[in-house]
Amino acid sequence: MSRPKNKSELLIQSATQYDRLMALVKSFEEIEITFPEGYLNRNVKDVLAHLHQWHLMMLDWYSTGMKGIKPEIPAKGYTWKTTPDLNREIWKKYKDVPLKEVIPLLHRSHQEVSHLIEKHTNDELFEKKRYKWTGTTSLGAYLISATSSHYDWASKLIRKCMKASLETEST
C-alpha cells in the first residue's frame, strides 16, 4: 500500500482499508478468540477499541490545534516514547466493553475522521507546516496514521493472531 499523497487517495485508502478490516472481522465464525500470549491487544475487540480511541485522540488534537492551542500529543502525560504505556491504558479503558458496543463506536469515530478529511482542501491536508500544531509535518500525515495506516496494521495483526490462535486450538 503506497502512502496517500492527496485528499482523494487519502479518502479512498481510508475507506478501502476500513472496509477490508471490517470484512476481515466479519469473516471469522468465532470472533471472541483470545490472541496468543505476548500481545497487548488480547482479541479482535481490543484492536478495534484501540483504533476507536486513537480516532478520538486525533479528533481532539485537531479540535485543540485548530483553536491555536498546542494539543498534548499523543495524550496528556505521554510522549511518543511512552506510547506502549498509553496503549495499555487504552486497553484497560475498554477491556470490559463488549464487541457489540465497540464496533458502532469505531464506525462512528471512523465517520467523524472521514468527515474531517472531506472538509479540507488538498493543500490544507498535505502542505507541511501549514498548521502550527502539526509541527514540521502535514495534517494529512496525522490523518493517514489515524486511518489507512492504522487500519492496515490492525488487519495484519488480527490476521496473524487469529491464524496463530486457530492453529493452536486445532493441535
How does this structure look, described?
The chain is mainly α. The mean pLDDT is 95. The protein has helices spanning 7-27, 44-66, 83-94, 99-118, 122-126, 139-146, 148-170. Helix 6 runs parallel beside helix 7.
**What is the distance, rounded to the nearest whole angstrom, between the alpha carbons of the first and last residues?**
34 Å
Main sheet summary: none
The quaternary organization reads as single chain
The helix/strand series, from N terminus to C terminus, equals HHHHHHH
Name the shape in a single word. globular
Q: Tell me the β content.
A: under 5%
Low-confidence stretches: none
Mean pLDDT: 95
Task: Give Rg in angstroms.
Answer: 17 Å
What helical percentage do the residues reach?
Answer: 55-70%
SS elements, strand count? 0
Helical segment tally?
7
Q: How does the helix and strand content classify structurally?
A: mainly alpha
Write the layout of secondary structure elements.
Blueprint: H1 7-27, H2 44-66, H3 83-94, H4 99-118, H5 122-126, H6 139-146, H7 148-170
Give descriptors for this structure.
single chain; 171 residues; mainly alpha; 7 helices; 65% helix
Quickly describe the structure:
The protein has 171 residues and is mostly helical.
